[in-house]
Specification:
Elements lengths: L7 E3 L9 H15 L3 E3 L3 H19 L2
Parallel strand pairs: 1-2
Length: about 60
């Protein structure tokens, strides 16, 4: 999904957190390449807040 530019929430935390480079790639750098990114958050409420914030930002950028 991320390769197609879709923000994707994953939980439980995948085994990428041992590498700072992998975390940066999946949570920041991929967005610059594909438009998608991975949200890593085990707390469902916090994840929903992050997703809502991203949706609001995307809507503002589109003028809606």
């Amino acid at each position: 999904a991320v390769a197609y530019g879709i923000m994707t929430h994953v939980s439980p935390t995948p085994p990428i957190t041992g590498s700072e480079d992998a975390v940066k790639l999946y949570t920041e750098d991929l967005e610059k390449l594909t438009g998608g990114k991975i949200i890593v958050e085990d707390d469902a409420v916090k994840a929903a807040e992050i997703i809502e914030k991203v949706i609001i930002e995307k809507r503002k950028a589109l003028g809606i």
